[in-house]
């Protein structure tokens, strides 16, 4: 007769640990451990009774003996969200310390749970700190630290906030946390934190021995959070179903792994303003692809919305015409292309053709939308990156128009004369309700409407006069309220070329607001007077500090405006090249246009 097999875990140790959690009123942890024990000993009456007792005490501690399923689910989701944030923070810590295997495990566990995003509170804390709203900043950063106790930047900023609030003990504790979380080898930051700790020690008038005790206390607190996650990691990996799920997910990921892919995506300029967690979220929509030289990545007139990042090799963007293929630009490592169709669905305005050794990262549009919907703050930052990148591309496209014809001094002299024809704009009284209705027509709603109405001004310009000229400095955006505005460039040898005619609700002038560069085109009241609503960089900052979903909606509007203009200017660039007699397949004149409107 064969002997009964021993369970794969130490049952006595498991139940003992569950009882310890129950004795300390940690009923959720005790419940999970007793459930795990029952999987290996389903007929054990003692474990069943202990589990029932734990659940009774948990209901009593909540003051609700009739706790329904919906409440239980809400509580579990809350705990899962916090646990997920902790595991993500631990994954980042392991990655910094060169332990990619442990980081990958923690990352997989974090992604299997609902995410409570600490970075919303972190960003709010940063914004409030910059605005010197220290009390609110402290509350937001405390909440962010609760969700992710392993974020050194949160601890560092919290220390600075508490110092401004003159809460010197809290400032010292947070600064010590930041020091303990410091990555090995970061000597410069270490010196800075040590200096702050010494200053706070003097302010608090504490001895070196007391400082050592405080260091020990903070270290133990971090270690407790660490040990709790280690326990959950072991329990998670013992669960056969969960372990199998991790293996399946790991097989579905690229061979280099999600962490490696995130590290490489971190080098892309378009994502340089994102934090590590946000980069990890983007990898959920990322897929590595290789193309042979000459392969068409997408075709002119196609409707795909995939976004591509060049990792290796080159990609040529060209425009097919009845006269042949006209190159619009050449892309290299780090360049992003294809985003225009994601922002403003339509037909691709050019072919994308792979060069030698072409390796790309493709962002699937449906998966990316799901990620951005789940993490609204990430959506704001991604579209902020698109906005800046598109502004640079539009400037480059505008500059190409200058290169098609030789300069003529008579034309330049005439253009200089035009600069004098700009009377001052008249102030116009427009009620807040009228401005709110204008912005509502563009799809805005809620808090951003009131902000735009309160912080914007209204100006009227006579017909034929310029709102601004190419080369002017500018820090304002405009929205057409009444009339029309023509955006144009003066092409040496070719005269004034209209780039766009803008009507009620259209935005313009935002590029100088983005990058501080001079105006890249003229804006003129077209066929009669025009009334515009104006707002500056201060208003933009107010919008960015709103609810993330509202801020994202506004950023999408700005991006769509540039995308529409990019498609129009692609037509202009190709038409002018044909008129100028440029040979198909020749290099575009002037600086290469990255991406065009593809």
Q: What can you see in these coordinates?
A:
With 598 residues, the protein is of the alpha+beta class. The chain has helices at residues 11-23, 27-40, 45-61, 69-96, 100-111, 118-130, 134-147, 152-164, 168-180, 187-204, 208-238, 240-252, 258-265, 276-283, 339-343, 365-374, 376-402, 409-418, 432-441, 447-455, 510-515, 537-544, 548-579; strands spanning 286-291, 296-298, 307-312, 315-321, 324-331, 336-337, 351-354, 358-363, 426-427, 457-461, 466-468, 476-491, 495-502, 507-508, 522-536. It contains 23 helices and 15 strands. The strands form three sheets. Strands 9, 10, 11, 12, 13, 14 and 15 form a seven-stranded antiparallel beta sheet that branches. A four-stranded antiparallel beta sheet has the order 1-8-3-6. The model is unreliable at 245-256, 405-421 and 588-597 (pLDDT under 50). α2 (27-40) packs antiparallel against α3 (45-61), α8 (152-164) runs antiparallel to α9 and α17 (376-402) runs parallel beside α23 (548-579). It folds into four domains: 11-67, Serine Threonine Protein Phosphatase 5, Tetratricopeptide repeat; 81-250, Serine Threonine Protein Phosphatase 5, Tetratricopeptide repeat (Alpha Horseshoe), CATH 1.25.40.10; 258-379, Jelly Rolls, CATH 2.60.120; 396-579, Jelly Rolls, CATH 2.60.120. The chain starts with 10 loop residues before the first helix and ends in a 19-residue tail after the last helix. Helices cover 56% and strands 16% of the residues. The longest helix has 32 residues, at 548-579.
